[in-house]
Amino acid sequence: MADVAVIARITAQDGTRDAVDANVLWMYEVYTDQAALDSHMASEAFKALGPAIRPFLAGRPELTFCKPIGGKGA
Fold first, then answer.
1. How many other C-beta atoms can be found within 10 angstroms of the C-beta atom of residue 56?
2. pTM score, two decimals?
């Protein structure tokens, strides 16, 4: 069962996306435990993500950490 989940709200700069809510992206990630999340955040791919998407962002992503209590993926 998953022990850690992250909900990320990412706000894009005006004019960089085409969508119903053109400036907001939502991501939901589930990890087996805190160590798995820590490993993901320490990975080279994750470290490269920030500089790659920074020109498109209107600010820092807002992260909410939570503990899944059930449902698909939990």
1. 13
2. 0.72
